[in-house]
Input
Amino acid sequence: MTLRSFENRLERLVEGFFARTFKAGLQPVELGRRAIREMRAGRTLDVRGQSVVPNHYLVRLAAEDYQRFEPVQEGLRRELQSAIRESAQEDRFGFLGRVVVDFETHEHIGLGTSEIVAAFDETVGAEIALAVLELPDGSEFPLTSSVAKLGRHPDSSIVLSDPNASRHHAEIQPDGDGFTLVDLGSTNGSRVNGEAVSRYQLADRDEISVGAINLIFRVA
Output
């Protein structure tokens, strides 16, 4: 993931009300830049001589900044984890466990500043991607055993910027060995390969359309 791609995704995450909230003070993209710097600074070699980087990132914030970020914290967590994973992939670095980002307040952190502590944590098991969604910017969102939420609301797994998308538009649910797209009663509906659907068992290369946004489902 390029830093600009990460910035664009964060802009969509904090659009509208949240964009006004984040006009001043600590900016979400600053956390992305710092996390990637800490990831690269923590590089070491494993027993096979391969480059590995920390997989656990603790973001320390002042209490006021923590409260300010709280409405978009889950979306920001996912974007930071994606930025770290994809930057490591570009640099050909590996991990010893699943990438995890946590937030906490810290009394010694000043307002408008942050600290990120990067560590190796082998106790965090890898979450295997069974499929991926190819996003319009070319990045990929991994589909695992967790439900992926699509919509304009900041707590969505994939935040959609199209005004034709509902705040809680649809879900992609694990279903046996595959995944099912479930429309959540959205205003403008969901389409797969151009056909309106309310519930649809996805197959490799299916195109999911929400408003003008197209996502490609691919089996991993």
